[in-house]
Amino acid sequence: MSHGECRAILCFKTCLLWGFLTRQRADLAFRLKSRSSFPMPRKYAPRRDDDRAVFIDCFLCRQPFRFGAHIYDGRGIGDWGVTFCRTCISGNHDGIVLESHPRLVAHLKERGIEIRLNARGWLDIPS
Description:
This protein is an alpha+beta fold. Helices cover 33% and strands 14% of the residues.
């Protein structure tokens, strides 16, 4: 038995013991054999201070997301002076299609940032 399988079994048993997982979710987690494959369900997550919650609008989709008080559901792109939510970052992981986001193009030109496209003709998000 590999180290990863041992860790998955131990985590599986611990989660069942503490009641964090339903039997069905625990079986799925055991089959995947990876600790990161079954995050703690939201209803069992530790309480957070909602009165200190900070919300910022995503530059691409304009939807608010939590960005502060130890919860960061997005990322700030310091070179560009914008913030993107986690959904937009994962949806554009291989590059941003500039035709879909003319506001970003105007913002980058206004800041004097050179637009360099990748092989697909999309704009890579800096890391």
